[in-house]
Amino acid sequence: MVRLAEFHRRATENLAAEDPEIFRLLEREMRRQADTLAMVAACSTAPPSVLACAGSALGNVTAEGYPGARFHAGCEVADDVERLAVARARELFGADYANVQPHSGSSANLAVLFSLLEPGDTVLGMDLDAGGHLTHGSPASVTGRYFRTVGYGVGPDGFIDYHEVAELARRVRPKLIVCGASSYPRTIDFARFREIADGCGAWLLADISHIAGLVAAGEHPDPVPYAHVTTTSTYKQLYGPRGGLILSGPDAARPGPGGRGTLAGALQRAVFPRAQGTPDLAGVAAKARAFAAASTGAFRALALRLRLDARQLAVELVDRGQGLVTGGTDNHLVLIDVGAKGYTGVVVERALEECGIIVNKNRIVGDTRPAHVTSGIRLGTNTLALRGMGPADMAACADLFCRAVEAVEQLGDTDYRLPAPARDGVRAAVARLCRDFPLPGYPA
Ligand code: DSN
User: Fold this and answer.
1) 109 occurs within a structural domain
2) Where would I find the H helices in 320-419?
């Protein structure tokens, strides 16, 4: 303990002395995070104990393979760390199988797709504009180049139309269906997706990167009993390090692709040696730490709060005249149609950033604007809830959002003017809110 603490203290001092340029940048980033209101739905703030693991000497270990079967010596501790991370992930999600090595959620998805499918097989995934993810078969991703991909969308109300998905699946006979999304504000019916997959003999992959914390806390239906494979990134709603995770429930023991071995065996080989070499063991330790934190009552309270925060934030925004995709939210995410008020997403994103509010532009259903412009803004409450803000504090957040947006004069798709007095007023209010609700464990 003393050795580790001493190491981190000296490491920081050495960094300051040896490389003041990067040291200053790291300090600046810490200050930026403390002083701004992060409402990017795909982010959270990892507790310092997670970052201590991620920056530890375990990162020095080269350890291809799995615990007890490595291709390098010196893995005694790394093996224990990885076994602990796997056990904690399985316990947290009630899974029969867990692989903690993927470097990201995207890597996890690629490993799964490339292990269960052959090039040219059909994948049915949610369209990017409807709320899906690049790795669910977008033509911009390798998944859209190596597989025949068909997209399902959402109905005019913004909700998934399960009858339409079932009809599409019957027609195109996919070998794999992906459910889960990166900008869908509503509950996903994993049991219904499994029925659809079973109806056409497809594998079902649930990507819960955005809602993993809600799932772990019982605040969103659980995909693990239904999907053959579940994936997630660990840095979004699990408040963990950059990284990914693959899980499987009762299907882990069933035959793998082509009837060979087991599904669990295929997933192990999918990550190593097929898709990755040595894992990031420091990252694996950080995942283990995050999984343990996510198993606590405090985390369950946080997950409930972030869901209730999002629900209230949606109400407050609608009360202030904002149009929301689906009219509200069931999870942590609120999707705003700023195009309806004549703004582009990119202009709103930039104007809010000038005011200290961090959001991201997002295409919305039927969007005619390109991905770098968009008509939508996506908000999330992961970090607001971590700061201790509850539903009663969402009026203040919605107010600041609307004050900033209403002050913007849109001049072109990407050009705008934001009068300094309005900007400074919102910025000062944001700074006050951040001081009143500091990030736990971070210097204020
Ligand atoms: N998946 C991307 C997002 O939802 O923004 C980033 O992780």
Assistant:
1) yes
2) 345-354, 382-386, 394-407
